[in-house]
């Protein structure tokens, strides 16, 4: 848990009372590789702080998985549709490695955002950072050649290229697996 608090404190310093309030809502979980934490069309009811491991988010489009993001140690994964719009998720989140995580009920997360300015500010910062990442990724896909997209990916997600299947990265970059293999090789 201390690792997760350290990651949050790096963005927004938390008072000990805020750390205690967050701690009281968290439950440790262990997930095997290829476990779905969030499923399209369903409500997970929880968000997950990743302590160890990696996840990927993806959409299923005409039977094809389109990777939209990766989360590693210190990240948080959840359905934005569920958290903010009270709707079932439109995407999947799966573990790509065994994962240790801390689960928080979305109701508790909403309550903390509504009653605790430090955690509300942390939530705002992680979302503005994610918006910027998505915006840059979208721009890269539209304007950069494949080699530069891969370089940008490696900067956005350090270490991920060594930990996940190349097909997931190719999907994220909007290129073929053979193109990615040539770029890496």
What can you tell me about this protein's structure?
- It contains eight helices and eight strands, in the order ααββββββαββααααα.
- The protein has a domain at 2-115: Jelly Rolls (Sandwich).
- It has helices at residues 2-11, 16-23, 80-85, 106-115, 117-143, 146-156, 166-173, 177-184, and strands spanning 26-31, 36-38, 46-52, 55-61, 64-71, 76-77, 92-95, 99-105.
- Helix 7 crosses helix 8 (177-184).
- The strands form two sheets. It has a four-stranded antiparallel beta sheet with strand order 1-8-3-6.
- A hairpin with a 2-residue loop joins strand 4 and strand 5 (64-71).
- The N and C termini lie far apart (39 Å).
For this structure, what is the CATH homologous superfamily of the domain at 2-115? Jelly Rolls
The average pLDDT is 94
CATH top level assignment of the domain at 2-115: Mainly Beta
Gap between N and C termini: 39 Å
**Do you know the CATH topology of the domain at 2-115?**
Jelly Rolls
- The CATH architecture assignment of the domain at 2-115 turns out to be Sandwich
Largest sheet: 4 strands, antiparallel
Report the strand count. Answer: 8
**Share of helix, binned:** 40-55%
Low-confidence stretches: none
Question: Which structural class should the secondary elements be placed in?
Answer: alpha+beta
Q: Kindly estimate the percentage of residues that lie in beta strands according to DSSP.
A: 15-25%
- Global geometry: globular
Strand order within the widest beta sheet: 1-8-3-6
Topology as a string of helices (H) and strands (E): HHEEEEEEHEEHHHHH
Q: For the CA atoms, what is the radius of gyration?
A: 17 Å
């Amino acid at each position: 848990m201390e690792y997760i608090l350290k990651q949050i404190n790096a963005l927004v310093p938390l008072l000990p009372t805020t750390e205690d309030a967050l701690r009281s809502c968290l439950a440790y979980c262990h997930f095997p590789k290829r476990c779905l934490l969030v499923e399209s069309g369903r409500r997970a009811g929880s968000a997950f702080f990743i302590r160890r491991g990696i996840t990927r988010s993806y959409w299923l489009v005409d039977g094809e998985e389109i990777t939209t993001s990766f989360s590693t140690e210190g990240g948080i994964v959840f359905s934005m549709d569920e958290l903010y719009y009270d709707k079932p998720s439109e995407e999947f989140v799966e573990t790509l490695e065994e994962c240790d995580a801390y689960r928080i009920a979305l109701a508790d997360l909403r309550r903390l955002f509504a009653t605790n300015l430090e955690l509300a500010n942390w939530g705002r910062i992680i979302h503005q950072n994610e918006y910027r990442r998505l915006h840059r990724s979208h721009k890269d896909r539209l304007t950069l050649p494949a080699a530069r997209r891969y370089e940008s990916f490696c900067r956005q997600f350090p270490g991920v290229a060594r930990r996940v299947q190349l097909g997931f990265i190719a999907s994220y970059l909007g290129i073929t697996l053979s193109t990615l293999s040539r770029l890496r090789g």
